[in-house]
Task: structure prediction
Amino acid sequence: MRPVPLEKGDLIAVAAPAGPFNRKRFHHGVFLLKKMGFGMAMRKDITARLSYLAGDDRRRAAELNEALASPFSALLFARGGYGCQRIAPLLNASKSRFHPKIVMGSSDLTVVLIHLWKTYGLPSYYGPMVAPHLTEPKTVRRVGRALTDPGFFDRQPIVAKAALKGGTAAGTLVGGCLSLVIATLGTPWELDTRGKILFLEDTNEEPYAVDRMLTQLEQAGKLKGVKGLVFGTFKQGKTLFPASIRRVLREKLKKFKGPILWGVRFGHCKDPLIIPFGGVGRIRGNRLVITRGIF
Result:
């Protein structure tokens, strides 16, 4: 099941299934998308707030189910935060209630992207969200190209700072925010990583916590059969690629047989690169070459 590229005038839905967001930044991002020629649709209660959630579970699940079932051309998200895992059991599983579309999100939306992949076989984009990212014209242009251009990945080079382990590998790309991938273990949304290239990133996690999560991945068998690893940002303060996290990866993954890329600019950062979840990639040297995107 694959979406089709957007054209000007197509309708983009925006949902908030996780945390509340900065309204000023959100509306500015929506304005910039409209300026690019897209129609925008959202529920009136998208700005609801219940502590650290964008409204209660019932509201957020209904909003997401409606967006997935409606014939919008794309679905973007207000922000991450927390909340998607709470509503995962409330999402409609019937394919008759689902309309294929481009879906783009990151951070807490890892759970939704995994759900779409496991339930419908729908590839998606691990990339920018409206409030945290669509304030920079450069990022808006990148999102616009990703939504409309089948050759987008030919012009978005994905280059790592270093190859922690050399080699080549090819496979379907799956992954997301490390702590959310860990949170799905033992649930119906547990990710199948066998034969895949696994991409991971996170933010504000101490080295010992990254060590613990990698240990859990290993003990859960989620590194067995993985063709290659691609690590994005692990932001601590203003540092996107901390040396302390790099040391953890080197030590924990010294027995990993495939290539390992460190320091790709995707995840929790300004103007992040876009990774096709469910696309196909090949690791060559310090590059991840996308051989098939989501279209």
